[in-house]
Specification:
Elements lengths: L20 H4 L4 H10 L31 H28 L8 E4 L11 H8 L4 E6 L7 H17 L4 E6 L15 H13 L4 E5 L22 H14 L7 E2 L3 E5 L1 H10 L12 E5 L2 E3 L1 H15 L4 E5 L12 E5 L6 H12 L3 E5 L26 E6 L2 E6 L13 H11 L14 E6 L5 E6 L9 E2 L4 E2 L1
Helix pairs in contact: 2-3, 3-4, 3-8, 6-7
Length: 476
């Protein structure tokens, strides 16, 4: 491992780091980055002109709204990834110059919210070098919540779309809070459920962490005295499941029915305003706004669309267009979170996809400018008059469906039934690998506030079914 959880840890806010002179002095890494990207000062897409790239200072504050210079702010986010990737390359070069060769070099992403810290998985993989691998570290509470499950599934789907190989470099085994009197115990049921959820969504390998208790770790599969706990059994049975009961595990691929577009610019906009991206349970919604749309809103919609598709009973996949625009061809229907910002490459790829006969659902604001801050004629269309909440437009052989408001709620329980029905209606026009739905309304009895019992109902579909296929085998 070249380094563990390469990131800014708890100093990864937009203004928290990277102002060291090695970065920001004239000719430092910041100017080297700008020179690599733009060549010369005349090519900078900023709101003012510069004679020399060395004259460009980095942002030192975040405004309430960005009227101009959006590219300047986005470049500072991109620069942070550039610096980390440069560091990874240097580390590998140091190892190899000291004779460390014929090994697999890896690095791992810490469990921060990818939508708040766009650390660009393919860039990290490229920086790790030939044959290198990038893993993600998964930690959840002792009972994995629905939101925790959705987060894990969403991250793995992005990894499937962006990396050569999807694996978890650190996968929770036990708890980093050794004082177990203040938390739930780590049961074998939890470890088993968490592992199978990850495997179902395309995680091809798991590296459990930790194997035994230590000074700050408790409830691991083996105690500090060498005694096995019940969750040790999960370590034994999982390889047995994958390589004995399933005969073709390494070549199985999860089937997805509709695509959700991951446009990096949306999450860079979120990162500009996020004061604490390391708080992975919280998504920043607030300043800076662009065209009256707050930072974080497109990221929130992106996250929520995964829930809506699963509520509709099928599986969503991710399309990282900047990494692989050809992935659009896999899906008859794709969903794009609405934002005033859209990357020019995303716009061009979606235009080709529509022309060839695909269907795009745009939920939320109509895109108006690209990553350079330049006005964009989205999909080659004039912005439609807002005559109704949903507008359908023919584009070549395909069609664009514009749902003018965001579809997803801020939290799972806020996903509305009309929004789920809207998504289901359009999904139902296409064939799915697997469909799942409750046979009847789910209800249960539990305590109510103030005492006594109450009957509760859950109208949403909280089930998930994923079909894996290879040339030889199918596994549900």
């Amino acid at each position: 491992n070249l380094d563990n959880e390469i990131s800014y840890i708890v100093r990864d806010g937009f203004l928290d780091s990277d102002y060291n002179p090695v970065n920001v002095r004239p000719g430092g890494f910041w100017h080297q980055f700008l020179g690599e990207k733009y060549g010369m000062a005349a090519n900078l897409p900023y709101g003012r002109s510069y004679q020399h790239i060395e004259d460009v200072a980095p942002p030192r504050s975040v405004p309430d709204c960005i009227q101009r210079d959006i590219a300047w702010y986005l470049d500072w986010v991109e620069f942070k990834t550039w610096v980390m990737c440069r560091y990874i390359r240097e580390l590998r070069q140091m190892h190899e110059s000291n004779g460390v060769k014929d090994v697999t070099f890896v690095t791992n992403l810490n469990p921060h919210l990818p939508e708040g810290v766009p650390t660009r998985m393919p860039d990290f993989e490229e920086a790790t070098g030939e044959g290198g691998m990038v893993g993600y570290d998964f930690y959840r509470g002792a009972f994995m919540s629905y939101s925790g499950y959705q987060s894990m599934a969403r991250v793995l789907k992005l990894m499937n779309a962006s990396l050569r190989y999807t694996w978890s470099a650190e996968f929770m085994s036990g708890s980093w809070n050794k004082d177990m009197t203040k938390t739930s115990r780590i049961s074998d049921d939890h470890m088993r459920f968490m592992a199978r959820c990850a495997l179902a969504h395309g995680c091809k390998a798991i590296q459990w962490f930790m194997f035994h208790d230590r000074d700050c770790w408790g409830d691991a599969p083996v105690s500090s005295h060498g005694h096995r706990r019940p969750n040790w059994e999960v370590l034994r049975e999982t390889p047995e499941l994958l390589f004995e009961k399933i005969g073709d595990w390494d070549r199985l691929t999860p089937c997805c029915d509709v695509g959700i577009v991951y446009d990096l610019i949306h999450h860079q906009h979120t990162a500009i305003g996020d004061p604490m991206p390391s708080a992975d349970g919280n998504l920043h919604i607030g300043k800076p706004s662009v065209n009256n749309v707050e930072a974080g809103r497109a990221s929130q919609e992106y996250m929520g669309l995964f829930r809506l598709v699963e509520h509709a009973g099928v599986q969503p996949g991710v399309i990282d267009i900047l990494h692989d625009p050809t992935a659009l061809k896999k899906y008859p229907l794709v969903l794009l979170p609405g934002s005033p910002l859209v990357h020019a490459e995303t716009d061009a790829a979606l235009r080709d996809y529509l022309t060839a006969g695909g269907t795009v659902i745009l939920s939320g604001p109509w895109p108006t400018c690209d990553q350079r801050g330049e006005k964009i004629h989205f999909l080659g269309l004039d912005r439609p008059e807002e005559s109704s909440p949903v507008i359908e437009i023919a584009v070549g052989k395909g069609r664009l469906i514009w749902h003018r408001d965001y579809l997803a709620g801020a939290q799972a329980e806020q996903d509305s039934m009309p929004a789920i029905d809207f998504v289901r209606k359009h999904i139902d026009r296409h064939t799915a690998a697997v469909r799942i739905a409750p046979a009847e309304t789910v209800s249960w009895v539990d305590w109510k506030d103030g005492g006594g019992l109450s009957t509760y109902q859950q109208p949403r579909n909280l089930g998930s079914a994923i079909l894996h296929r290879s040339d030889k085998e199918s596994v549900l």
